[in-house]
Design brief:
Blueprint lengths: L7 E4 L10 H13 L1 E3 L3 H6 L4 E5 L10 H20 L4 E5 L10 H13 E6 L12 E3 L21 E5 L8 H9 L7 E6 L4 H11 L5 E5 L4 H10 L2 E3 L9 H8 L4 E4 L2 H10 L4 E4 L5 H11 L14 H17 L1
Parallel strand pairs: 1-2, 1-3, 3-4, 4-5, 5-6, 7-8, 7-10, 8-9, 10-11, 11-12
Helix pairs in contact: 1-11, 3-4, 5-6
Length: about 325
């Protein structure tokens, strides 16, 4: 019997380490069971041999604070495009965001557009990601984190404790959350903000607001997995007041550790309500406000089930689904 060829897939992210996005680390781990997975280096991308290039956040490949390095990366990116095109190496793209978090230079947008034109298969992480005419799109739901985080260290739920966590970008609404929380009269409430701001200006704005309310506790910086598990488990409610939520690893982090979440009403959060129930995902219209927070706290009550049902998000199945997409890309 002829041995089946084991695919070699180049991922667009570096080898996972302790600070790596858990989604990336878990995908890398589980794909290794079913194919050969190469972490990204420019040497591997330009000189290595692989069957498929699997892309996440392609704009990151072009980013640098140093102009000379940006120039070098653009040149390398152009060389990679030539290799992919003339080597007939298929490109598979996972769409994490509706648009990049930061603005790109025109030359970067042109290079990224060329990569899009080479992409033959697209992966969405939910059923609400827009699809362009003619795109081959497969939905593979964002996996859960139940087997990623260590157990919390004997931390009990504090019924008066709210938590925001994750990388703090302007669109995630932390400034508005602190402002709304500070208008709540209950002196026993606590709001914890845990994560690293992406700019000094944002960090300063958060610190100035927090200084006006002793109930706001800041942990501005990298939070390791153990501390994060403790913080999530200790909170009564995780609040994620993003201006627009499309995919959210933070939401799944919280649900994976059996904590209810308050999030804005969007097509994807409405889908999450359908998937896990209103006990676990509380959604609201408009900006975050004291009324929104109060209603969520009042409606939590006793959660009926021991844990939200995240069975649609098992990683074994997700890895198999990715492998099927890689094969379709090669056959296209």
């Amino acid at each position: 019997m002829q041995e089946t060829h084991r695919l070699t897939v180049l991922e667009s992210f570096k080898k996972p380490r302790a600070t790596t996005n858990p989604y990336v680390a878990m995908l890398f781990r589980d794909l290794q069971v079913q194919c050969n997975v190469l972490p990204f280096t420019w040497q591997t991308a330009l000189a290595g041999r692989y069957d498929v290039f699997h892309v996440h956040w392609p704009e990151i490949l072009l980013q640098s604070d140093r102009p000379t390095r940006r120039f070098a990366r653009r040149a390398a990116f152009g060389a990679l495009l030539a290799k992919l095109r003339f080597g007939k190496i298929p490109v598979v793209r996972t769409v994490h965001n509706l648009k990049p978090h930061e603005e790109s230079a025109p030359v970067d947008r042109w290079l990224l557009g060329r990569l899009d034109r080479l992409t033959t298969q697209w992966i969405s992480l939910n059923n609400q990601t827009p699809r362009e005419p003619g795109q081959e799109v497969t939905t593979i739901l964002h996996g859960h984190y139940r087997d990623w985080f260590p157990p919390a260290r004997g931390v009990a739920i504090d019924s008066k404790r709210l938590l925001f966590f994750g990388l703090i970008r302007p669109y995630k609404g932390v400034v508005g959350l602190i402002t709304a929380f500070s208008e709540l009269p209950d002196p026993d409430l606590t709001l914890v903000i845990a994560g690293r701001p992406t700019s000094e200006d944002l960090a300063t704005a958060i610190e100035e607001l927090a200084a006006k309310d002793s109930r706001v506790e800041l942990k501005l910086g990298y939070v390791d997995d153990q501390e994060l598990a403790d913080e999530i488990t200790h909170a009564r409610l995780v609040v994620l007041p993003y201006e627009n939520m499309h995919n959210s690893g933070a939401l799944l982090n919280a649900l994976s550790l059996n904590r209810p979440v308050l999030a804005p009403k969007t097509p994807t959060t409405e889908d999450m309500v359908e998937e896990v129930g209103r006990d676990w995902v509380h959604i609201y219209d408009g900006p975050i406000s004291p009324v929104v927070i109060s209603k969520a706290l009042a409606s939590i009550g006793e959660v009926q089930s021991e844990a939200p049902d995240l069975s649609l998000r098992d990683w074994d199945e997700a890895a198999s689904d990715h492998l099927a997409v890689f094969h379709r890309a090669i056959e296209a």
